[in-house]
Design a protein that fits this description.
With 187 residues, this protein is mainly alpha-helical. It folds into two domains: 61 residues, no CATH class; 114 residues, Rossmann fold (3-Layer(aba) Sandwich). It is built from nine helices and two strands. A two-stranded parallel ribbon has the order 1-2. The longest helix is centred in the N-terminal third of the chain and has 28 residues. The chain is extended, with a radius of gyration of 24 Å.
């Protein structure tokens, strides 16, 4: 005879943890008994699919290494003094710019929320199943420099190029220091 324990063991062997949790829940909740076989099976598969999607999103958020992984476009405040174009930001929310291989450049004074906005867009992209990665430019340049030295340059570039969205955060004054450095060397 097939028992709940037998089914639980099979779901474990098949690594169907969402299915397993839902099966256990259904066995304890009598309201599921009124559903047809197909409806109950649908709920079991739906639980498995949802759990896998949640795990994938969590893994992608971890890989992205966002400074603020909870950043969300919903949190943006569109005060008049910030001069944010809500329709433009919402048009970025569909992440179509990624499919079109377009770049976004966010400029403004320090502390105006550029990094937060970029991370909110990245989080939205991840929720839409795009891979993303956050880098401070100085960290990325150091990683590339080290890859050249240890012979893994091609491998490092291949790893970076797998991300559909790269966020490059430039520290304040970085370009100014680089410009001064290049100007001084030319004299």
């Amino acid at each position: 005879m097939i028992t709940l324990a037998t089914l639980m063991e099979q779901t474990s062997q098949l690594s169907l943890s969402g299915f397993k949790e839902s099966l256990l829940f259904q066995s304890e909740d009598t309201s599921y008994q009124s559903l047809s076989f197909e409806e109950r099976l649908y709920h079991l598969f739906e639980a498995e699919i949802n759990q896998r999607q949640d795990k994938r999103i969590k893994r992608m958020l971890t890989m992205a290494k966002l400074k603020d992984s909870s950043a969300s476009l919903d949190q943006i405040q569109y005060h008049a003094k910030r001069k944010l174009d809500k329709s433009q930001i919402l048009s970025l929310a569909n992440c179509e710019f990624i499919n079109k291989f377009q770049n976004i450049l966010l400029t403004g004074a320090t502390g105006t929320g550029k990094s937060f906005l970029a991370q909110a867009i990245a989080r939205r992209a991840i929720l839409l199943s795009y891979t993303a990665k956050y880098y401070r430019v100085t960290t990325l340049l150091e990683e590339i420099k080290m890859a050249r030295l240890d012979g893994s340059y091609t491998k490092t570039l291949a790893k970076i190029s797998k991300f559909k969205l790269l966020l490059l955060d430039v520290p304040q004054g970085h370009f100014l220091r680089a410009f001064r450095s290049n100007t001084t060397q030319r004299r």
